[in-house]
Each structure stands twice: as structure tokens, then as C-alpha cells.
Amino acid sequence: MRHPHRFSGPLGAQNRCHAGFGHPSLHAGGSAGRDAADTATSPDLRQRFLFHVLLHGFGRHHAHRFGGRGSRFGGHGGPGGMGGYGGFGGDGDGFPRGRKFSSDDLQLLLLSLIDTQPSHGYELIKALETRSNGFYSPSPGMVYPALTYLEELGYVTVQLEGNRKRYELADAGREYLAANRERVELMFARLSHIARKMDSVRRALAGEEPADVSEGGWVPELNEARRTLKNALLRRDNAPADEQRRIAAILMRAANEIEGGSNGDKAKTGNDSEPTV
Fold first, then answer.
1. In the prediction, which pLDDT does 6 show?
2. In the prediction, which pLDDT does 224 show?
């Protein structure tokens, strides 16, 4: 779902000013939309345009919402969160529209950060924001209830420092984290990937050179291979079941080879290793 606009009148009224940006709507058709993008040359407008791109390109409005079927925090997320780890966005790189982190995902992310360094709640929020280059920053209203729940489970202990709580990992939390280590690593890897894409968009809008591959990210050949694979799958959108199974087998073999080339492990089937393109 697109994020809501303040204007409920005719399209022309919406195009005159895009809610929250203070410049002509980037949704506007024809020259109006192009002019809105072309005139985003000042630092302020460039920054606003950057966030517009990220909002729509990655489905940002769902990034801070949490669900988890039957979870303490409610919502309609499913097992595996983030859409079963199938990817964060329409192209497999961002948060998928309509999907959310589950409460279990948030708890695991927090446990991992606490394992790295005992922290206060605010520090954990900032750590997640830093890991995603500002893209993902859960609200205190989500983080603190999750921390309270982890304390009730015996996964973390609390040290009072004035009027603040400092959270440390307990043995039970360490065991739970170890049992879900691969899942946590994948979530952080996706956040890091989004952070790099954030930086790429920022550099492009600022007229800067792309980051060197040594700083992270993918070489052009790999990006081209991903696009080619995506297009091949789209052209077989209505393929019969037998053809889909054949394609799935090819993708799983490729995933196994990719995993084997890095650490010798085999790609696993299931939600936590669903192929993305």
C-alpha cells in the first residue's frame, strides 16, 4: 500500500504538493513529475527526493511495523518475519510491501546486539539505525516492550544505572541466540545490503562517484546476472507446475554452489533461505 497523502481531493491537488515533501508531487504524470525530480537540485530538495525514492523503492512504511502471528505484539506477520526472509522489497532487496518484521525477528536482533555489547534500550535503537544506514529505526514503543518480554523469558538480565536499564545477555538467551544464529546473520546481512543501497542512492543524487567495490556491494557483472535471472523468471510467470519445479531445482543447485563457494555449506530449503533475485 502506498503511504497516505494528506490530500483527498482531485489528482491535480495532490500533484501540486506531495505530502511531507513540500515540492511538486513525484507521482505527477508527464512533465510535472519529471520537473519535480529535475528541480531537486538544492541540498535540501535532494535530501527530500532521496527519501522519496527510498520510501517507494523499498516500502519503507512497513519497515518499522512489527507483526508475528500469535505474537505478543500482534499483527499479521508470519513465521520467518520479513516475508520468510525471501527479501525486503519488490526486487528482493528491500522490505516487501505489506510485510513486516515479526516480534521474534526483533527479539533476535536485540539479543544479538546485546550479545555484542550490553546496552541501554536507546543504544539498541541507534545500533539498528546505524546498521541500516538510517533506513530502519524501530520506535521505543516497539523496542522496550520487546526487551521487557526478553527479560520475562529469562533471556536477558537488567542492571539499573540511575533511572536507566542496561541489558545483558543471560545464559538462556545465549542458547536461544546460538540456535538461531544463521537466521540472525541473514537479517543483519539484508540490513547491511539496504544500507549500501541507501548510500548508492545518496551518492547518485549528490553527483558523487559510486563507492568502490572494496567498500562492499556487488560488481556490475553480478548485478547484470541478477537482472537477467529476474527477467527470465518474469517471462515464466505462468509456467505449468512441472516447469516451475524444474526452475526451482536449477535455482537450488545454483544456491548450493554459491554457498559452497564461500563456506562449504549447502543452501537449506525453507523460509530462512528462500531464493531471492
1. 42
2. 87
Please state, as a whole number, how many other Cβ atoms lie within 10 Å of the Cβ of residue 253.
Answer: 11
How many residues does this entry show for the chain? Answer: 277
Pairing of the two strands 101-102 and 66-67: parallel
Residues 230, 277: Cα–Cα separation, whole Å: 6
Domain parsing of the chain, residue ranges: 1-39, 61-183, 218-277
Look at residue 214 in the predicted model and tell me its pLDDT. Answer: 53
CATH classification code of 61-183: 1.10.10.10
Per-residue HEC secondary structure of 129-193 comes to HHHCCCCCCCCHHHHHHHHHHHHHHCCEEEEEECCEEEEEECHHHHHHHHHCHHHHHHHHHHHHH
Q: Sign (positive/negative) of CA torsion 43, 46, 52, 53? A: negative
Residue 43, pLDDT score: 52
d(CA 261, CA 146): 37
The tens digit of pLDDT for each residue in 186-203 reads 888 888 877 777 777 766
Which secondary structure element, helix H or strand E, spans residue 120, and what is its range?
Answer: strand 119-120
What nine digits make up the cell of 23?
515540492
DSSP state of 166: E
H-type alpha helices, 117-160: 121-131, 140-153
Q: Which residues of the chain have pLDDT under 70?
A: 1-101, 202-203, 208-218, 261-277
- DSSP lists the bridge partners of residue 168 as 157
Res 48: pLDDT: 53
| Torsion sign, CA atoms 222, 188, 260, 58 | negative
